[in-house]
């Protein structure tokens, strides 16, 4: 130990951005941190050395941001999410620091191609889809707009599965993103917390005779913190993503090991580590349900303990928590945090129940991401009570308080009481986590205007009646740094050449690009950028799948989680109908089209996996039929992740956003495609409604039933069979699929799937088919006039700036968090 006081500790000099200095440092890291001579270093060695040099420059700004927050007493935002789909980080960090040219030059001087080594970086599979990617965009935007923030989640060892195809079927394999370490993260050994499960609750008298409850867990694990810095645009602020790993209290039972029980000696270690091994374990079994609940409590409890520790380091007590802390619950996954904060306030820090409840409600806010009842989590009461007995007591106490208020003060009926209760008693008693999150938060926001309005009349209608001022809208957004500047440098350069650099700091300043929409010279340049991106995607498809694509064809892309409400099934059925039309009417002027799909199906979701198989079966038939004359190709690209999206999004001509109206909360893929100059074909669902408002009806292809019309059809009786029989093209396509035309090895493979459309058509595939097919032919017509198509694409890019996540975060900060 030295004798320097903290005040006299030297401050490191700012690190140089000169390429020659960066090159020297890369060689130094390669030699002394990785132990490799440059002459024998492999690409992955260069990648790690480069990341370490970049990381040093981030650390300076990271510490500066932390000191500033502490010195000013600024309110901190804590974003709790079970998913953070962060993707690769090197390009993101280098670009946001403004060092892309310098790092590229430094590596070039060393004989290293930045594109080669960047492609080796692991793509962290810490999310399932839009919710996790939104969390990642929000973290970057909070740093960009100078909101002090921590993201809290789980450091999954494997994350979401790696998807491979076996004879057209999805096969799930472990994703091994941590196999070779993670040079971005820092382990924080001082930030480790005990997390309990099970056991009993004892009543004891406090020192002033007030009742006090003590939870004595039967099991305990350690939550260990790993921090990743999140760099804002131009390095203005660096925030922290803190991910929790589970570790056993006793890594090995030495007595058992020495006695020869080598497996049993590691039982506790394996049990603890299983908590954070896989994202979303299949919950079709009681064991799977229990593991998922354990995961949710594990990261929620660790995060809250960490938040309280940090608060008490700076402030005297916890009564000021709502003034200095805002905790955002990203969907229902962390909603057990409401009960856990109450436990910590009451049982650990001695607050009276009503005071603790007031602090809790003022601190939490909740983002709802779904109107699907099955996606609003609920847990069997016996399971929850066995794992978290004290929390069950607290939930009952909160529920009692709320139900008495609703009955006595608001005169709620029995039906309304049953609706708002946190305990669902319609079957086996279950704890409704959406209701817990709603009741325990001062703000509940939807993620698009339509979604927010529907929340008030559907899933939360009675809670909205009880608390009419809590629901508000915050339409989602995307970070334009990742989803324009980094993934589409060609388009970024073209825009800078046309309108200058202002849009790089404020995406809404893309609007002056509208003036170039009908400029033929600019249209040609815009189209040339798109073609370059399409060639890059074509090369990827050829390399991975051996399928040759024509970059002159329209690239029609649907990339998202595979789910019946997202209607990949509608898309592939219309593709079959188009295939029939091309063969039946070869004399017509068909526009060449490539239909590209990508996305993962939940391992236990049979119909979603069957839809993937159908797409691959249709692809095999169409792509090998010479009568199509290259006018139509179908490709399912496996293992969709952030890195694949960064190639597919800039290459898209047409963006498929065709969910059943009223079922997609927002969508963010629609925004990414639009920003990169793709035209949208979609329903009036989620943020498509606001996209229509922003880009104008002439620049988007809207079709199908509205959310209100879907609800009316479901309520009044929907006769899909009559619709199918009245639509020749639909009937023929369904007959071909169900009879085995595309599955000669198993002619009944799709019979049940198609019968579901005939029987009930819950997702309105038959109801919307004709409108969808007609709109696709309008797409063909516009595509046939390149100048008209290009004008529309330029308008889309120019008018998508409002969908920046910077705008969304500023709204959260001003209207919910009161921060920044």
TrEMBL record:
Cellular localization per UniProt: Cytoplasm
One GO MF term attached to the UniProt entry: glycogen phosphorylase activity
N6-(pyridoxal phosphate)lysine PTM positions: 672
Key word Glycosyltransferase present: yes
Enzyme nomenclature, EC number: 2.4.1.1
Stored PROSITE patterns: PHOSPHORYLASE
Keywords for the protein's UniProt record, in alphabetical order: Allosteric enzyme, Carbohydrate metabolism, Cytoplasm, Glycosyltransferase, Pyridoxal phosphate, Transferase
Name of the top EC class for this enzyme: transferase
Gene Ontology cellular-component terms listed: cytoplasm
GO biological process: glycogen catabolic process
Catalytic activity: [(1->4)-alpha-D-glucosyl](n) + phosphate = [(1->4)-alpha-D-glucosyl](n-1) + alpha-D-glucose 1-phosphate
Cofactor(s) demanded: pyridoxal 5'-phosphate
Family: Belongs to the glycogen phosphorylase family.
PANTHER family in alphabetical order: GLYCOGEN PHOSPHORYLASE, GLYCOGEN PHOSPHORYLASE, LIVER FORM
Main function: Allosteric enzyme that catalyzes the rate-limiting step in glycogen catabolism, the phosphorolytic cleavage of glycogen to produce glucose-1-phosphate, and plays a central role in maintaining cellular and organismal glucose homeostasis. Phosphorylase is an important allosteric enzyme in carbohydrate metabolism. Enzymes from different sources differ in their regulatory mechanisms and in their natural substrates. However, all known phosphorylases share catalytic and structural properties.
The protein, known as: Alpha-1,4 glucan phosphorylase
